[in-house]
Every structure is written in structure tokens, then in C-alpha cells.
């Protein structure tokens, strides 16, 4: 388990409990040591509840970025069957930061698309830390076109710090690819649901989340820029990221009030990283519920409702 900065007191308690159990396994005073370990477990449980009872925006940002949170590949493996990945944008190449293809969700055919960050150093480099290049967005466009053609619902799983800002990406039309991907979301006549499972960074997230229904995990974030980037621009000091996180209103709770998202998916105590299977199951239930709300809607109505949702978003937020 990787502990975040604010979880250090918890790490100390859980570490001591594990040390006592290791001593008990050696057979010396096993009963008494187990009792002490159990008391520490109770203490750590109370502390965990206190820590996660009222996380501030910066701490939520840290939780959203936790390396042990389930990633797109984990959700696809657990929630989808007959997943057939499709690669490439038919123009330049394949972007490993974006994964997607045909699959079945609750035994119904669909298209699933998501950002993949990777779970160790090698895979993170391979997936470019979830930062998509133009070919990633063009691959998503190709998949959404296919979904529209065959009347398949689209499910997107968003987890990216933002689109890749490298020179090559800009040369290949990064902003144009993001804009076209966002436009494609508005054009397809099939149900489109999106879940922010970790970070929803900038236009790199919006390009996948311009959906009929948008949900966020309880401790995920969704913002126009990272707190560090915002602090660097506004205060010329990246260390003011805590102030920036507060100002950006990037938490699921704030965004629900502003009508930017439709629902919040509760996470297990201590975040999705502490009980990945439970978090994945909760996401699956919400995806099923969101799709069920659009079962009888015609293509024209889906497109109309999606466009109206985003046109009205600013006014709803101001009214809130």
C-alpha cells in the first residue's frame, strides 16, 4: 500500500499492527500480540474515517492520482466481456494512452473507450502516463463513428492529467484532434455515458466526457487545468497548488452542485485504492443505471439532449 502525505499517521499505526502480527506468527506471546494488533486496527479504522470524512480539494487531488487506484484496463477486465481492442487512427499510428474497442456490458454490445495510465514504471512509460496524443483522439473518433453506424452505446472512462503537450503532438494537430473528438461526441446518435475514474484534466478529458450522462467517483477530480499549472500561471508559484485546487472547484461535490456532472459514485472508505473490486462494482452499477435511463430514446433525441445539456451548463452553474 502506498500512503499519501496526509496518511502518514495511518501508515505508522498500520505498520505497527503488522509488526505485531509478524511477531505473533513467530509464536511468542501470540494471543497478547494479536489483541494489541486488533486494538491498533480499530484505532486505524477510526483515523481512516476521520481523514476521509472531509477531504479538502488538494487532498482529493492526491487521492485521485493515487497509483493504486483501479485503471481503465482494470474496469474493462472486470465489467466487460468479449472485449476486442481496436488499434490505430488509420492515419498516423496507435496511441497507447487511449484504449478502446468492441465489448459487451451486461451481455449487451457496446463500444468502450478510456485513458490508460499504466501501473508500474514500464507500463506508465508505454501508456505515456495517460496523456493522449492526436492519434489517440482520432482513434476515439473512429470508434465513435463505428458505434454510431452500428447503433452501439458508448462508454468512456476518463483518467488523464491532460492531453500530451509535446512538440510532436502539436505538430500533428493536437488541438484540432481534441476539438473534433469533442464534436464527434455531440454528433453520435447513440447513448454516451462517461465516468471520471481518477483525473479529468483539461480538454483531454472533455473530449471523452461530452456525454449524455457524466458520473464521477467520489474522490476523483475534473478541471480545466491541474492545480500546479493553475498556480504557476496565476501566482507564478507551483507551491500554491492547494489554493489553486480550492479555487478550481474540481471536486465531484462542487461539480455536482454546478451541474457539470450528473451523479457521484461513492468510493470505499479510504478511496478506491483500498478496495478496487468494490469501487469497480459500484461504477458498473452506475453505468448500467445511466444506460437504462436512455433505453427508449431515439438518435435525434439523444443528440438534442446532449447538446442542450452542454449549452445550458453555464447558466445552471450560475443559478446554483
UniProtKB/TrEMBL annotation:
Its quaternary organisation is: Acetyl-CoA carboxylase is a heterohexamer composed of biotin carboxyl carrier protein (AccB), biotin carboxylase (AccC) and two subunits each of ACCase subunit alpha (AccA) and ACCase subunit beta (AccD).
Q: In which pathway does it act?
A: Lipid metabolism; malonyl-CoA biosynthesis; malonyl-CoA from acetyl-CoA: step 1/1
Cellular compartments annotated: Cytoplasm
Concerning its family, UniProt says:
Belongs to the AccA family.
Q: From which domain of life does this come?
A: Bacteria
The yes or no answer to whether the keyword Transit peptide is present is: no
What's the catalysed reaction?
N(6)-carboxybiotinyl-L-lysyl-[protein] + acetyl-CoA = N(6)-biotinyl-L-lysyl-[protein] + malonyl-CoA
Q: What role does this protein play?
A: Component of the acetyl coenzyme A carboxylase (ACC) complex. First, biotin carboxylase catalyzes the carboxylation of biotin on its carrier protein (BCCP) and then the CO(2) group is transferred by the carboxyltransferase to acetyl-CoA to form malonyl-CoA.
Q: Which GO terms describe its molecular function?
A: acetyl-CoA carboxylase activity; ATP binding; carboxyl- or carbamoyltransferase activity
Q: Which GO terms describe its biological process?
A: fatty acid biosynthetic process; malonyl-CoA biosynthetic process
Query: Which residue intervals define the domain CoA carboxyltransferase C-terminal in the entry?
Result: 32-293
| EC identifiers of the protein | 2.1.3.15
Q: Name one GO cellular component term.
A: acetyl-CoA carboxylase complex
Q: Which Pfam families match?
A: ACCA (PF03255)
What's the name of the protein? Acetyl-coenzyme A carboxylase carboxyl transferase subunit alpha
EC top class, as a word: transferase
Amino acid at each position: 500500500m502506498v500512503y499519501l502525505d496526509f496518511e502518514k499517521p495511518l501508515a505508522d499505526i498500520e505498520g505497527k499492527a503488522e509488526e505485531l502480527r509478524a511477531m505473533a506468527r513467530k509464536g511468542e506471546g501470540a494471543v497478547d500480540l494479536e489483541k494489541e494488533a486488533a486494538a491498533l486496527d480499530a484505532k486505524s479504522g477510526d483515523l481512516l474515517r476521520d481523514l476521509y470524512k472531509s477531504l479538502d480539494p488538494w487532498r482529493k487531488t492526491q487521492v485521485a492520482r493515487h497509483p493504486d487506484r483501479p485503471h481503465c484496463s482494470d474496469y474493462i477486465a472486470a465489467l466487460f466481456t468479449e472485449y476486442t481492442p481496436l488499434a490505430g487512427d488509420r492515419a498516423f499510428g496507435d496511441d497507447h494512452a487511449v484504449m478502446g474497442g468492441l465489448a459487451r456490458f451486461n451481455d449487451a454490445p457496446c463500444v468502450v473507450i478510456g485513458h490508460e495510465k499504466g501501473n508500474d514504471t514500464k507500463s506508465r512509460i508505454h501508456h505515456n502516463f495517460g496523456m493522449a496524443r492526436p492519434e489517440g483522439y482520432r482513434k476515439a473518433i473512429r470508434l465513435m463513428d463505428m458505434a454510431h453506424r452500428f447503433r452501439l452505446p458508448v462508454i468512456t472512462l476518463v483518467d488523464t492529467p491532460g492531453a500530451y503537450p509535446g512538440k510532436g503532438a502539436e505538430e500533428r494537430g493536437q488541438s484540432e484532434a481534441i476539438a473534433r473528438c469533442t464534436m464527434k461526441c455531440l454528433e453520435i446518435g447513440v447513448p454516451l455515458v462517461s465516468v471520471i475514474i481518477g483525473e479529468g484534466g483539461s480538454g483531454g478529458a472533455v473530449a471523452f466526457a461530452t456525454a449524455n450522462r457524466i458520473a464521477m467517483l467520489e474522490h476523483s477530480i475534473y478541471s480545466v487545468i491541474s492545480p500546479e499549472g493553475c498556480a504557476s500561471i496565476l501566482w507564478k508559484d507551483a507551491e500554491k497548488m492547494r489554493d489553486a485546487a480550492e479555487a478550481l472547484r474540481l471536486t465531484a461535490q462542487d461539480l455536482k452542485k454546478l451541474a457539470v456532472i450528473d451523479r457521484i459514485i461513492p468510493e470505499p472508505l479510504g478511496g478506491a485504492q483500498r478496495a478496487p473490486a468494490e469501487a469497480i462494482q459500484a461504477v458498473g452499477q452506475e453505468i448500467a443505471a445511466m444506460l437504462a435511463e436512455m433505453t427508449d430514446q431515439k438518435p435525434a433525441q439523444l443528440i438534442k439532449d446532449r447538446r442542450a445539456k452542454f449549452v445550458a451548463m453555464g447558466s445552471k452553474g450560475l443559478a446554483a
